[in-house]
Amino acid sequence: MALSLCPRCEQDHVLAATIKKTAQRIWVCPECEAAWLDETAIAAPGFIDLGTHLKAPGLTALWTELDVSEAR
Protein backbone atom coordinates (compact mmCIF):
# COMPACT_ATOMS: atom_id res chain seq x y z
CA MET A 1 0.00 0.00 0.00
CA ALA A 2 1.30 3.44 -0.89
CA LEU A 3 2.28 5.84 1.85
CA SER A 4 0.23 9.00 2.28
CA LEU A 5 1.91 12.38 2.08
CA CYS A 6 1.55 14.18 5.40
CA PRO A 7 -1.39 16.61 5.09
CA ARG A 8 0.14 18.91 7.72
CA CYS A 9 3.66 19.56 6.41
CA GLU A 10 3.56 17.89 2.96
CA GLN A 11 7.27 17.10 3.43
CA ASP A 12 7.25 13.39 4.29
CA HIS A 13 5.02 10.33 4.29
CA VAL A 14 2.85 9.14 7.16
CA LEU A 15 4.13 5.91 8.72
CA ALA A 16 2.26 3.35 10.77
CA ALA A 17 3.72 2.80 14.22
CA THR A 18 2.98 1.04 17.48
CA ILE A 19 3.75 2.54 20.86
CA LYS A 20 5.83 -0.24 22.41
CA LYS A 21 4.69 0.06 26.03
CA THR A 22 0.98 0.46 25.32
CA ALA A 23 0.63 -1.47 22.03
CA GLN A 24 -1.42 1.46 20.68
CA ARG A 25 -1.37 1.78 16.90
CA ILE A 26 -0.77 5.32 15.58
CA TRP A 27 0.17 6.98 12.30
CA VAL A 28 2.95 9.56 12.39
CA CYS A 29 4.91 11.91 10.14
CA PRO A 30 8.68 11.68 10.72
CA GLU A 31 9.19 15.26 9.52
CA CYS A 32 6.71 17.28 11.61
CA GLU A 33 5.75 14.65 14.20
CA ALA A 34 2.05 15.03 13.54
CA ALA A 35 0.24 11.89 14.68
CA TRP A 36 -3.19 10.37 14.20
CA LEU A 37 -4.93 7.69 16.25
CA ASP A 38 -7.08 6.49 13.35
CA GLU A 39 -5.77 5.83 9.85
CA THR A 40 -9.05 6.99 8.33
CA ALA A 41 -8.77 10.36 10.13
CA ILE A 42 -5.43 11.42 8.63
CA ALA A 43 -6.02 15.09 7.79
CA ALA A 44 -4.31 18.39 8.58
CA PRO A 45 -6.81 19.68 11.16
CA GLY A 46 -7.12 16.35 12.97
CA PHE A 47 -3.53 15.68 14.05
CA ILE A 48 -2.08 15.50 17.55
CA ASP A 49 1.52 16.24 18.50
CA LEU A 50 3.47 13.00 18.88
CA GLY A 51 5.50 14.22 21.86
CA THR A 52 2.44 15.43 23.74
CA HIS A 53 0.66 12.13 23.09
CA LEU A 54 3.63 10.08 24.31
CA LYS A 55 4.08 12.17 27.47
CA ALA A 56 0.42 11.76 28.53
CA PRO A 57 0.88 8.16 29.80
CA GLY A 58 4.31 9.00 31.23
CA LEU A 59 6.48 7.99 28.28
CA THR A 60 9.35 10.03 26.86
CA ALA A 61 8.79 12.07 23.72
CA LEU A 62 11.29 10.00 21.74
CA TRP A 63 10.99 7.85 18.63
CA THR A 64 12.55 4.97 20.58
CA GLU A 65 9.11 4.56 22.22
CA LEU A 66 7.78 3.49 18.80
CA ASP A 67 7.99 0.42 16.62
CA VAL A 68 7.69 1.97 13.14
CA SER A 69 6.42 0.21 10.04
CA GLU A 70 7.55 1.34 6.61
CA ALA A 71 4.15 0.79 4.98
CA ARG A 72 0.68 1.68 6.08
N- and C-termini, Cα separation = 6 Å
Number of domains: 1
Q: How many β strands by DSSP?
A: 5
Mean pLDDT: 92
Radius of gyration: 11 Å
- Estimated share of beta-strand residues: 15-25%
Low-confidence stretches: none
Largest sheet: 5 strands, antiparallel
* Class computed from helices, strands and strand pairing: mainly beta
Number of helices: 1
Order of helices and strands: EEEEHE
Helical content, roughly? under 10%
Widest sheet: strand ordering: 4-3-2-1-5
Shape: globular
Give a summary of the structure in a few sentences.
It contains one helix and five strands. It has 72 residues and is mostly beta strands.
Write the layout of secondary structure elements.
Blueprint: E1 15-19, E2 25-28, E3 34-36, E4 48-49, H1 50-55, E5 66-68
Describe the model.
It contains 1 helix and 5 strands; from the N terminus they run ββββαβ. Strands 4-3-2-1-5 form a 5-stranded antiparallel beta sheet. The protein has one domain (15-68). The protein has 72 residues and is mainly beta. The model has no long low-confidence stretch (mean pLDDT 92).
